[in-house]
TrEMBL record:
This is EAL domain-containing protein. It comes from the Bacteria. Residues 23-277 form the EAL domain.
Amino acid sequence: AKASGRRQHRFFDTALQASITERAALIGDLRMAVAQQQLALHYQPQFDDSGRLLGFEALLRWRHPERGPISPALFIPLAEESGLILELGQWVLQRGCQQLAAWHAQPALAHLTLAVNVSAQQFRSPGFEQQVLDALSWSGADPGHLKLELTESMLVHDVESLIDKMARLKRHGVQFSLDDFGTGYSSLAYLKRLPLDQLKIDQGFVRDLLTDTNDASIVTAIITLGQSLGLPVIAEGVETEAQRDALRQRGCRAYQGYLFSPPLDAPQLVAFLQRYGG
Ligand code: C2E
Ligand code: CA
Ligand code: CA
Ligand code: CA
């Protein structure tokens, strides 16, 4: 399944690279998507070991008027290249914070956190910090329940200013999770200096955890590293009980994945939360 997934991915990459006009067209369409309300956030629940709901990860969806749903794995890179990521990211922050504030108005949901993905370009841009603070104050959401997911690939250059920016946001209470952990080449020395609240095990390692001893070793190493740095670890892409059990056995205590729930659209979210007394 992994090999075919990779082939498929490469196919899309080359298809896009081959067609500059198509890329340009998509970027143009994306530019209008915000204004024309073609974007939506879906929310995937995260659970602790005892089945308690911890919060959600916001995942961006784009329904193109002619092409239908387009994967964020495809349009986020386009948004980054074209500079649209700032506008898109702002929309995600505003929408996400609005949702967070709505949960906090309900006692049964007041503990929930919201994880928001932040791309490298977006985080690096000078306006980012203000964008986050504005979204928080505009919505009235509690900064302490907003968790920004940064990716390991951001750690390749200018780590000092990245740390500074994280630290400033952290002073407002904002949390940070390191997404896709283990897939990049971040230095462990940096890891110790980053003001992180969580490590997220990449779904690629979870997928082959039971069949690939290398992946199993990496998962064990990440969890051990998290424990020694005092960082909770969450696993994403958990699809089977066997995977969950193997993760638990290695000391993982938080999970996200199809085993528990797919990302939920607005009506599904309402139905889901009704079970939690919201
Ligand atoms: P990610 O942050 O690693 O998100 C996890 C992806 O795994 C999501 O794909 C999610 O739908 C999918 N997933 C969840 N559970 C399972 C599972 O059990 N098995 C499998 N195989 N997959 C699962 P999605 O929604 O297509 O998003 C793809 C990527 O696009 C995200 O990867 C993230 O890097 C990016 N992305 C999504 N929304 C945003 C956003 O608002 N801003 C930015 N900058 N990037 C975003
Ligand atoms: Ca993520
Ligand atoms: Ca990930
Ligand atoms: Ca593997």
